[in-house]
């Protein structure tokens, strides 16, 4: 079940960055290169994100990130 965007996900800064890049169509490798982290680290963050959103596949996650891109951007801006 995909939860509505109410802001209670407790995403870390890095998770928000990954969500934003995912919404822009980046692969795990692209995200790792952009953030200068290992691809395994990206995978670990994605596993945590899947659990927080109760999502079990990448297509659903990509749809969620596209639907909530403005919220993701606002959360990243808020944390600056």
TrEMBL record:
- Keyword DNA-binding listed: yes
Domain (HTH luxR-type): residue spans on this chain? 4-69
**Which PROSITE patterns does the record cross-reference, listed alphabetically?**
HTH_LUXR_2
List UniProt keywords, sorted A-Z: DNA-binding, Transcription, Transcription regulation
One Pfam family name is GerE
- What is the official name of this protein in its record? HTH luxR-type domain-containing protein
| Organism, as annotated | Caldicellulosiruptor diazotrophicus
């Amino acid at each position: 079940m995909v939860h509505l965007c109410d802001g209670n996900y407790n995403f870390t800064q890095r998770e928000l960055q990954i969500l934003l890049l995912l919404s822009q169509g980046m692969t795990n490798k692209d995200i790792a290169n952009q953030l200068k982290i290992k691809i395994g680290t990206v995978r670990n963050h994605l596993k945590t994100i899947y659990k927080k959103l109760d999502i079990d596949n990448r297509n659903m996650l990509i749809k969620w990130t596209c639907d909530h891109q403005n919220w993701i951007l606002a959360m990243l801006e808020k944390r600056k």
